[in-house]
Amino acid sequence: MRYTKSLFTLFFCLFVATSAVSLVGCSSDGPAEKAGAKVDQAVESATEATEQAVEQTSEHVEEMVDEVKDTADHATE
To answer: What does the domain layout of the chain look like in residue ranges?
Structure first.
């Protein structure tokens, strides 16, 4: 009986210690988390810049197509 109680106490202490270490480890960002956040931010920024460039290019292409159509219409008149 005494062996079971001390074994239970040991496991309980190990559980509490492991839980405390886990909580402390999760509360602060380490270098890997900080680097990951910077990479995420860089990818998001690059994605936004690419989307903006594609949108601008698309607008310019549409304007050029309209100009070509206008020129073709005037040439056939």
So the answer is: 2-76
